[in-house]
Every structure is written in structure tokens, then in C-alpha cells.
Amino acid sequence: MALAVGYALEEVPPPSSRSAPETTSTPAVTVEREDPGTREGPAQVVVIPVRDQIAPPILYVIRRGLKDAIDSGADLVVLDMETPGGRLDTTFEILEALDRFPGATATFVNKEAISAGAFISAMTDDIYFAPTGVIGAAAPVMSSGGEIDESMKQKIVSYLRARIRAISEGHAYRGEVISAMIDADYVLEIEGEILKPAGELLSLTASEAAKTYGNPPQPLLAAGIAESIDELLDARFGEGGYEVTKLVTTWSEDLAAFLNGISPLLLGLGFLGLFIEFKTPGFGVFGILGGIFVVIVFFGQYTAGLSGHEPALFFFLGVILVLLELLFFPGIFVVALSGVGLMLGSLVWAMADFWPNEPISFSGDVLFQPLMNVAMGLIIALVGGIAAVRFMPGGWIWDRLVLATAVGDASQVEIAAEAAAEEALVGEIGEAQTDLFPSGQVSVNGKWYTAKVAVGTVEKGTRVRVSGRDGFNLMVKPIEEDEA
User: Fold this and answer.
1) Can you list the domains of the chain with their CATH numbers?
2) Each residue of 219-270: pLDDT tens digit?
3) Residue 173: how many CA atoms within 13 Å on its side-chain side?
4) pTM for the whole thing?
């Protein structure tokens, strides 16, 4: 039973059915103009849509948008909010991402910011409303929709209120308002006026959120009201005083959420495919599939806003080092080990939540899950490799997939038994029946053998000379034209 993973919506009375401050009509735009200060050129604004349920795909969009905003030096990030709420664990991750953004942030309550949406809105510097925007809350519930035990619910509400107080400094009434949206027992009273009695959860319309209290007057929650984000930005920066980059959400975020959930399995299949490819001659379908699975992992991390292009480049640099070891420096091991280290390190890097312009922190919180994913991938590959060797049947399909030796298991036994006779093949001339990268098949005196070249590669059809033996493999080298 998952507790408080969901942050769902309970019935919240409409604003007109509860005690609320008397309001008058509010101007279409009440936004304070921002001082350009020393900024050169138009302000750079990034708009991130927050739609539907708060779930991992929304986290990925927000995190990717914030990192892009840091890279581009954006002056303001605006969350275009229209959500009924969602998961509490995802909400906390979004709050942490917003907290790491060094620039100004704002929320535009386009239609509704309910439940987790209200909590996320409270994390931004300013909250703006469309004229029909509504913000409200609901009690935390289990992900199944059932009620949480009352004592546990009190602990969660207490923690949420503490988080709100911590992120509401500098806003006169925000902490109290959001607390009233979280805790049904909280009484919101300002200047002797009870805005929310005990026993219900607070929700506010745009005009209610914009009502001012105190001396000097300060709005209850809203920094301004505007018909649209463009109108909001015109009022804040002046018409033509800004440039907007709008993130577009696609199906890829939903796909990334699924892929990241099975990333250990994808890594295991990728490692297994590459392992089989390196252990068999030529290049076959297992190498292709292994590479595809690894690329899918990098795609999922990139879409999740965790990885840029750099980890993928380092991974393929590691692959190149391993190939160099196999093709040109067999037996040295240092080159291959360096390549494997780069490959594993790049995967951990791709899954770790590192932020631009921040020193890289190798803390347990950052690296624990990536290391667990890679470790699980290696275990899956190990188990799969053992199972493949133990249980995979032979036959035409398997032979074609892995380019298995044409001589088969019986011939391998014969090779081992006739080791002395094969020593006599040294100096004999044969022909490569497959490409040697560096292993493959050659024929000598009408018989096929598994063979290797010490340095480089040999193309199919090349004449070769047997130079020795390595275990059960013949060692060969291509015959130069002047030797023919």
C-alpha cells in the first residue's frame, strides 16, 4: 500500500458557497512593471505548460525547461498552469527543481491550480491569474484514492505546512493561504475577517486572490490578473520588451516516463547484446539490438531532463576504446578497461540530476538511483548471459544470429583433440570465409577453423597464412601481394 504517493482532489465547495471577502470588479491587468535595470536587450522568458495530472511527464517537462532556461540565461520562467493536481512525490521533485533555478519564476493560473498545482504555484516568486482562474487544494490521500489514517494524515499536513512556510518568506499572506488550502482544520483570519472557517478547504477565485489587506496594502495571493500570458508580459516588461520561448509537450514525455521505469531492464538487455556481439565473430543482430537498447536509455534520460548529449558521446567513446582493444591491441586490457569505465560512468552520468552552472555533487542522493540502475542492468546481463550459454539451443537461426562457428560444437571438440595435428598447419595458406574482426572463420586445406588475427582486420575472401594457435583458435595473418 503506497501512502501519500497521490495528492488527490477532495470535494471543495465552490467559492460562492463559502465565506469569502467582498470583492469588486478587478481590472483586466494589474501587473507591476519590472525595472529593466542593467539588462541589455529584451527580457528572455521561458513558458512551460503544466497540464493535466501532476505526474512524471510533467516533472520531465519542467525540469528540462528549467535547465534550458539556465543555459540560455532566461530572465523569467512562467509556469502556464492548468491542473487538477496529482502525485505528491512528483510535486516534491518539481519543488526541488524550481528551488534550483537561480532566476525569477512565476505561475500563470490559466484556468485552475488545484491541489498539487497550488503547492507548486506557491513555490514560484509570483502568482498571476487569468480573470476566471481558480486556485484551491485538497487533502492528501493514498494513490488508490482511499483515505489516509488520521494520525498519518496529520503528520503529512504538518510537514506540508512547514514546507509552505519555508518557501513563502517575503510574501505576507501566502503561507497562511496555502496552509488553509492544505489543512481543513486551519482557520484563516486576517484583520478580524474569517476567510476560511474550520472544517473545509480554501479555494480562491482570481479576484479573491487579488484582494489586498494590511497597511501598506498587500494582495492576499495574486501578484496580478491578466487575460493572457502575452498581456501579462506586456504589462511586466513593456510591449516588445521581451522574447518568449514556449516549450511544447509531446508524446515523448509519456514514453520517457515508461522507459525510465524499466531502465534497468533496458540496460541489462543492452549489456547482454553487446557482450554476445563481442564474444562472437563478425557483426550481427545482437550488437545492433544492444546498441538500440542503450540508445533508448539515453533517449529516456534526455527527455526526462536529466541528460544532455555529452553522456551519450562519452558512452560511444568508450565503445570505440573497446573496439580498438579488440582490433588493434588485443591482450593489453588497459584500453578496453578504460572504455568499459567510460561506458558505465556515462550511464550513471546520464541518470544523475546534475544542473547547469552548478558544481557536480557526488552525493548519495544524486548517485544512489543511477548506480542501482546500472548495477541491476549488469546483474540482468550476467544472468541472461549464463542462461544463453546454458539453455540457448543451436540451429540455423542461432547460427545466423551470432555468426556461430560453421564447424559447430563437435568440430570444436575435434579441434581440441587434434591440437597436435593443427600445429602442423602453421605456415599453411587458407582463405577467410568471414570477416575477421578480429575473429572469424577460415578454411585451410578444405576444412573450416575458427581463427583470429593479431592486429587489424581481414575481409572475407582474403588469402591468409596460419601463423600459430591461440587456445582453440588458429592465428592467421593476411598474405601480402609479394608473398602470393
Assistant:
1) 6-246 (3.90.226.10), 259-309+343-397 (no CATH), 405-483 (2.40.50.140)
2) 999 999 999 999 999 998 888 889 999 987 766 666 766 776 777 888 888 8
3) 24
4) 0.62
